[in-house]
Amino acid sequence: MGSGVAGLSAAIEASKHCSVLVVTKDKIDENNTVYAQGGIAVVLSAGDTIVKHIKDTLDAGQGLCDKAAVKTVVSEGPKRVHELIEWGAAFDKEDDRLIFTQEGGHSFPRIIRAQGDSTGREVEHALIRLVKEYKNITVLEHTFATDLITRDGICHGAIVWHAKKGTTLIWAKRTILATGGCGQVYRETTNPDVATGDGLAMAYRAGAVLQDMEFVQFHPTTLYIAGAVRFLITETVRGEGGILRNKRGERFMPRYHQQAELAPRDVVSQSILKEMQKTDHTNVYIDVRHIPRERLYTRFPKIKEICDSFGIDIAKDLIPVRPSAHYMIGGIKTDQFSRTTVRQLYACGEAACTGMHGANRLGSNSLLEGLVTGYTAGKDACESIQKSVRKLVPYTIRESMGLSKISWLDLNDIRNSLKSLMWRDAGIERDERHLLEAEEMIEMWGSYVMDKEFSNPTGWELQNMILVSSLIVSSALKRKESRGVHHRTDYPETDNIRWKKHITWVL
């Protein structure tokens, strides 16, 4: 389930010996991967080493990374990227050599990109082309997965819904969740509409362990124009020399961190928020006017195009930006084989919590993790099927009608209220009073939404968003310290004695 970099990587690897069905709730290329401007962090350049990349990842994770998971992803990354290039993915080159750029938290230029700021789209379309060539991979688009089919702690497939075909039971020997994150639970987000945390909610209801749900990463810089869709201004803009300025035109990042604009994302996001509060302004600005025009237009064609549409010439004008919810670091707990705690159920990509990112994801590590964990999930799922003697035997499912009938509810109003509440009370800065307020409000909305039986994705998505939001808020309330992307103003220090550990949830 899911058709981003992790889902398609899993499908391709599993299809070598098994038949594969890919289920995606929208069209195959509508997912977070396609919108990923940033590149892939991978050790391919002279002078860079696996050890350096591992250290940078561990430093960003602030004590909560799984070192074995980090080593596996970083070490396997070059193989998977070479494979991707063989499949036709074209990354930016100069004199027939890959171009490497540097982002915040990285000690070395190791980020490869495609078409300047369209890396995700290039990766996704390369994978889609390959998927279409495999006769034993079937793709169901515009198909919403409502729940997993489980019995005795074993997953046997999923229940899905299509507008024309209705509800269908899909029986599977192995099920892989690659459903992405949950950025849509926040009002300000870089995520597309499909990112409503459906896989996280399904896994939780099926009895899988979820971990690190308090760690939601906020991207420091998204284009901020009132009324416009939030558009990501990739971190590489700062890597190329972009300077952050407040409304008075002052450069402020050197006051907050020695790496200034190249500080880790959590530091930059929190610093921008402080400047907005100090100057009583809705945003700050990125200044790239000192970078040669030709280089700007060549490196960031998509950003240029979007800014042009709002009358902003990036070579002459400041770009208004502010932070937005970007990436779910936590998720469905998995082991080194991408297995969840529910038998025959796997998770990979942003939906999974592999331990790779700890308390703060290092920039451009997500596409890398998606490639590696997707490959791992597909490989292990396929191999375990070949070793198993157990046959796939569908069983009778009785429909339960215990849910309440739908009373009059304005689902869009509840959804918008939830998103505003999460942004206000469980956003970049958190404290006990606001988190308790959020917990109370979410519980109230849940009391008249969660027991209703809906017949379309609008209601199902809202139920999933309420469940995921509840887990985020409860986790944030429980972790009484500040670490990585989790910043408690009432507990501003990192507490390694009591909180250098993970928070897990299971139904």
UniProtKB/TrEMBL annotation:
Q: One Pfam family, please name it.
A: Succ_DH_flav_C
Name the cofactor(s) required for activity, per the record. FAD
Which reactions does this protein catalyse? Answer: L-aspartate + O2 = iminosuccinate + H2O2
What is the first-listed, main subcellular location in coarse terms?
cytoplasm
- Record keywords, A-Z: FAD, Flavoprotein, Oxidoreductase, Pyridine nucleotide biosynthesis
The FAD-dependent oxidoreductase 2 FAD-binding domain, residue ranges: 1-367
The residue ranges of the Fumarate reductase/succinate dehydrogenase flavoprotein-like C-terminal domain are: 415-505
Q: In which pathway does this enzyme or protein participate?
A: Cofactor biosynthesis; NAD(+) biosynthesis; iminoaspartate from L-aspartate (oxidase route): step 1/1
User: InterPro entries, alphabetically?
Assistant: FAD-dep_OxRdtase_2_FAD-bd, FAD/NAD-bd_sf, Fum_R/Succ_DH_flav-like_C_sf, Fum_Rdtase/Succ_DH_flav-like_C, NadB, Succ_DH/fumarate_Rdtase_cat_sf
EC no. given is 1.4.3.16
Q: Where in the cell is it found?
A: Cytoplasm
**Known function:** Catalyzes the oxidation of L-aspartate to iminoaspartate.
Q: Which family does the record assign? A: Belongs to the FAD-dependent oxidoreductase 2 family. NadB subfamily.
Protein name as it appears in the record? L-aspartate oxidase
Taxonomic source organism: Candidatus Brocadia sinica JPN1
